[in-house]
Amino acid sequence: MTPDQKFARYVRFSLIGFIFVFIYYLVADMVLPVTPQARVYHPVVQISPQISGRVTSVEVSNNQTVKAGDVLFSLDQDPYILAKEQAQLTLDDAKLQNKRLDTNVKAIEAQISAAKAKQHEQALLKSRGEKLFKQKSISEQELESIRANFQASKSNVAALEAQLAEAMLARGESGSQNLAMRHGANQLAQAELNLSYTQVRALSDGTVANLQLLDGAYALAGQPLLAIVAKKADLVADFREKSLSNMKPGAKALVVFDSRPGEVYEAILDTFEAGVSSGQLSANGLLSTTETSNRWVRDAQRQRIHLKLTDHQDLIANMPSGSRATVQLLPQSSIGQWFGSIQIRLISWLHYIY
Fold this sequence. Notes:
Layout: H1 3-31, E1 34-41, E2 44-47, E3 53-58, E4 65-66, E5 71-75, H2 78-134, H3 140-171, H4 179-196, E6 199-201, E7 206-209, E8 218-219, E9 226-230, E10 234-240, E11 252-257, E12 264-272, E13 302-309, H5 313-317, E14 324-329, H6 334-350
Antiparallel strand pairs: 1-10, 1-14, 2-9, 3-5, 3-8, 4-7, 5-6, 7-9, 10-13, 11-12, 11-14, 12-13
Helix pairs in contact: 2-3, 2-4
């Protein structure tokens, strides 16, 4: 065989191989979709204080495991202790003021009793005076004076009763339902709550990450100072939309993690993501923005899916957030599952090299 014939054979074999690989790629992309765009994500809780203050002590270190309720760092308590004492003084002052109002109410009630007794006396004098006037024993002027005294006594009782009503309104309800007492108790409770906020605690189990906080730093309310990576983990993978056209929740999958080359784990397709950020529209008052591209064939849109390991769900819980993985989705046919198994195992062996 001449060299030209050998070269022609190599070219022929190369073209056949290329065509075979191209056809396999087209078919596999629809029937055996695989993607290296998969990650393990952990929920990250940003820890920020609910009050402002100087950091007096940092109780944790970077990458330390914490449980819900553990103290992460403490703030200066002195201003909040003073605020609590001030609130307690306000409550005590409200109690004292209520006692004064109670004394005032009792004094007015005593005055009303005396005024009513005086009114009763004036009523008797008025009745006697009217009888004497009929008997011509007193003059009309004396009768008018008696009647005037009686009306004055009635007015005095009415005035004192009005004062009593005003005093009762100022006093309000008795006990803990008193308005001033409730204000004082509310201020005290708020001060005690703020004092408890001087110890910033973990709200969930996890691992402290990217800790940069030092003693003496000034913490602002609502500003994150450290993060806790939760133990709960989620395995997600991004596929081209076309590749997922034949897949449904519950489909079988095989997963290979970059950190564990050569190991293949079984999984199932749990859920499809509702959407991606590029498909989100915000009511910002601006006109719509059209997509622009100079490419004749645009990049394929990817859709995110969530997977769940069949037998090793706790495995990803111990992996760092962001760990990379490769996911192979399997069809229902036995032959397709066999090809998919060979494909993902080849990828797992390649992870030993790269």
